[in-house]
């Protein structure tokens, strides 16, 4: 079957996830690529609804993202934030002038009664993104980070405290009232996917919130398509962000094997393929012993070509099984 004819579902978190999503977008027809973003990082700030992972994904696919940071818009200015600072307002979370338009518009649409799924689809269309982008759920789920007796809302931990406090656990406030967005649920129930890809995103704060939306990981396990995860840890370090630091603080080995153990324990039987970097090739046997097929390639995505090559590798893993 040509790649264009296959529906692929990818679960993504922040910057690392968006990179592989862009590679997948280069390899698949837009109507075949369905992307689910974590919304545990969402928060209400300055009276606005901010959805950082949705925006990172859409800006990346639209070719608008800041290439250095991976989040926010390229060529952004911060006049509104500076003016807010002069008024004594909060400026720790850096909202750019053009990015603010996204948050203003999203907040208005939500206040007018639209769902987050509807607003996300409309935002993607307006910015010229033809792939299907879904939030994991329409309900509010908020990741809280437990650190040394304190509970920090995710963005306070991540941006406000620069991930410095040691973590002891995470809670996804509101998750028990959440449900997978209807468009995704219908596709899963129809067995519409040929492959499911879990992008190299943080297991604890990007992918766990998605998989713990009630019924979601079980629906992914029950549907017929193989599930492939790309390790976010390469040679003991995170491709991006605090994943390795969190693993060390949680007493989990900061390695691709540690990631595989996390998924095997929490989501038994979910993963079919586990993709690791060449530098972790010696871990393949340990990962295979957890009941997944280990596959080795280059997983560090610095250029557009690296993103495309990794996406192609992931897609071919499953194509070759047919
Ligand atoms: N990350 C930062 O490190 N500092 C910021 O000031 C910041 C602002 C920001 C604004 C809009 C947005 O969509 C993302 C933003 N991010 C910022 C990134 C964001 O906090 C993280 O990338 C994700 O939540 C983690 O996946």
Main attributes of the structure:
globular, binds ligand FO1, 14 strands, 322 residues, 7-stranded parallel sheet, 3-stranded antiparallel sheet, Rossmann fold, alpha/beta, 13 helices
Instruction: For the record, give the distance between the C-alpha atoms at the N and C termini, rounded to a whole number.
Output: 9 Å
In round numbers, the mean pLDDT is 96
Largest sheet: 7 strands, parallel
**Radius of gyration based on Cα positions:** 19 Å
State the helix count: 13
Q: How many domains comprise the coordinates?
A: 1
CATH architecture descriptor: 3-Layer(aba) Sandwich
Helical percentage = 25-40%
CATH top level is: Alpha Beta
- What class, by secondary structure content? alpha/beta
Segments where pLDDT lies below 50 for 5+ residues? none
For the largest beta sheet, what order do the strands appear in spatially?
Answer: 5-2-1-9-10-13-14
**Morphology:** globular
- CATH fold type: Rossmann fold
Ligands, ions, cofactors? ligand FO1
Overview of this protein structure:
This protein is an alpha/beta fold. The protein has one domain (3-41, 130-319): 3-Layer(aba) Sandwich (Rossmann fold), CATH 3.40.50.10680. It has 13 helices and 14 strands. The protein has helices at residues 15-27, 52-61, 79-86, 97-111, 116-126, 154-160, 182-189, 203-211, 216-222, 243-250, 256-266, 284-288, 304-319; strands at residues 8-12, 33-37, 43-45, 48-50, 132-135, 142-147, 150-153, 169-173, 195-198, 227-230, 233-234, 237-238, 273-277, 293-297. Helix 4 (97-111) packs antiparallel against helix 5 (116-126). The chain is globular, with a radius of gyration of 19 Å. It starts with 7 loop residues before the first strand and ends with a helix. The model has no long low-confidence stretch (mean pLDDT 96). The structure holds ligand FO1. Ligand FO1 binds next to helix 2 and helix 6.
């Amino acid at each position: 079957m040509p790649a264009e004819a296959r529906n692929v579902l990818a679960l993504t978190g922040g910057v690392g996830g968006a990179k592989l999503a862009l590679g997948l977008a280069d390899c698949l027809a837009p109507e075949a690529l369905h992307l689910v973003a974590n919304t545990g990082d969402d928060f209400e700030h300055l009276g606005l609804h901010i959805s950082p992972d949705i925006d990172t994904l859409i800006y990346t696919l639209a070719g608008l993202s800041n290439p250095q940071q991976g989040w926010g818009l390229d060529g952004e200015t911060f006049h509104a934030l500076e003016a807010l600072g002069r008024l004594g307002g909060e400026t720790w979370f850096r909202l750019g002038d053009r990015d603010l338009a996204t948050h203003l518009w999203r907040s208005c649409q939500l206040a007018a009664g639209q769902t987050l799924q509807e607003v996300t689809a409309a935002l993607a269309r307006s910015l010229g993104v033809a792939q299907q982008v879904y939030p994991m759920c329409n309900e509010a789920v908020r990741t809280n980070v437990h650190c040394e007796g304190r509970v920090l809302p995710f963005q306070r931990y991540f941006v406000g405290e620069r991930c410095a406090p040691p973590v002891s656990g995470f809670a996804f406030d509101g998750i028990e009232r959440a449900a997978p967005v209807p468009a995704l649920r219908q596709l899963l129930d129809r067995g519409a996917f040929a492959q499911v890809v879990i992008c190299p995103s943080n297991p604890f704060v990007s992918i766990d919130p998605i998989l713990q939306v009630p019924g979601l990981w079980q629906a992914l396990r029950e549907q017929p398509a193989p599930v492939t995860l790309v390790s976010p840890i390469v040679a003991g370090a995170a491709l991006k962000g605090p994943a390795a630091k969190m693993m060390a603080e949680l007493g989990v080995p900061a390695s691709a094997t540690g990631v595989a153990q996390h998924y095997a324990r929490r989501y038994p039987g979910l993963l079919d393929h586990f993709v690791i970097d060449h530098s972790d090739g010696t871990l393949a046997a340990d990962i295979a012993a957890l009941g997944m097929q280990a596959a080795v390639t280059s997983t560090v995505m610095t250029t557009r070509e690296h993103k495309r090559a990794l996406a192609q590798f992931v897609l071919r893993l499953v194509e070759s099984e047919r």
